[in-house]
Specification:
about 325 residues, twelve-stranded antiparallel beta sheet, four-stranded antiparallel beta sheet, globular, binds P-hydroxybenzoic acid, binds fe (iii) ion
Length: about 325
């Protein structure tokens, strides 16, 4: 094995807790019963194992997402769409001032491969990083089996609109998606379609609330409609968004049901900027220069509206586009 291969792989022998240890460039990853440890040349940091696995799961499933995925106030990834920076303290004012921050750039496929290996080895049987805490077992303790089925779920992605011919079939009891325990009051009837003569095969509609009521994952937007770069990505939320997302573009939220509280911070420093409480019907445009984390006291439905245009990050970064869509 070349040195590079060794740096990007993991130990074969498990540690005393039964878990493999991993290296990626000069970053190291290890875990014990309760914590994941991340090391880099100037620091060592720990994150509770359940929180680490929930964040890692989303970073992988979303292909490193738009902009920044902070696992917490210290460790995270920055997507350059082709390469990814793995950083420690990069978006933390105090680490920056103390020159304790550290960052390395990897080809997306390399960091993806290592992250997938960590997630697979460190996720025990019975723990589902996508599930709400009340709906899954424990992440803690010595190594105990694996849960490949849960961690290799992909987010559901329509190419046009859910229910359009050839696209993602609607979920149902029959295909393994029962209505969630907290959405039993959501009507399951489907819309009646009255198409103009001659257009019968071209008009489609579906009950988005019924669709979302059957989501078996939390904080995992699924694309339900695509119109050029406009993506409707609704999701069901419960407990805490496992990452703190620093965006590289404006992102719209439409609260469809129940309530989510958002902590909004400065993207670069983490300084607190706003607390936002969203109730059904509320709409928010999250600015392009913030980071945010959501809290949902009970399962709720949120529509995340993304503009996936690849030109946006450069336009925002250069100041050609303002960080907010509207100036009041
Ligand atoms: C976000 O960071 O904007 C985000 C991520 C996942 C969600 C909702 C919002 O489920
Ligand atoms: Fe976001």
């Amino acid at each position: 094995m070349s040195e590079r291969q060794v740096l990007e792989s993991g130990s074969i022998e498990p540690n005393a807790h039964g878990y493999r240890e991993f290296a990626l460039g000069r970053f190291g990853f290890s875990r014990d019963g309760y914590f994941a440890y991340v090391t880099w040349p100037t620091g060592k940091h720990l994150i509770p194992a359940d929180a680490f696995l929930r964040a890692l799961q989303r970073d992988i499933a979303w292909g490193f997402f738009y902009g920044i995925v902070n696992f917490d106030a210290v460790v995270g990834t920055l997507n350059h769409y082709g390469t990814v920076d793995l950083f420690a303290g990069r978006f933390n004012e105090h680490y920056r001032k103390a020159k304790m921050d550290y960052s390395e750039t990897f080809p997306t496929a390399v960091i993806q491969r290592v992250f997938e290996a960590v997630l697979e080895d460190w996720t025990n049987a019975g723990f589902d990083p996508f599930a709400a805490p009340e709906e899954t077992g424990s992440a803690f303790g010595p190594k105990n089996g694996s849960n490949k089925e849960a961690i290799t779920r992909h987010r559901v992605t329509a190419r046009r609109m859910v229910s359009a011919p050839g696209d993602e079939p609607l979920r149902s009891d029959a295909n393994g998606f029962p209505v969630n325990r907290q959405f039993r009051d959501v009507p399951q009837d489907e819309p009646e379609i009255l198409a103009e003569a001659g257009f019968e095969g071209e008009v489609v509609a579906f009950n988005l609330f019924a669709y979302l009521s059957r989501s078996d994952v939390t904080w995992n937007p699924s694309v339900v409609s695509v119109c050029q770069h406009s993506l409707y990505c609704p999701t069901t939320e419960e407990y805490v968004l496992p990452i703190i997302h620093g965006n590289d573009r404006v992102e719209w939220f439409v609260q469809l049901s129940d309530e989510i509280r958002w902590d909004v911070e400065d993207r670069e420093t983490g300084a607190v900027r706003a607390k936002v409480v969203m109730r059904p019907g509320d709409v928010a445009a999250m600015p392009a220069d913030i980071r945010h984390r959501g809290y949902a006291p009970k399962r709720s439905m949120l529509l995340v509206w993304e503009n996936a245009s690849p030109e946006l990050p450069a336009l925002v970064a250069s100041g050609k586009l303002p960080p907010t869509p509207v100036t009041f």
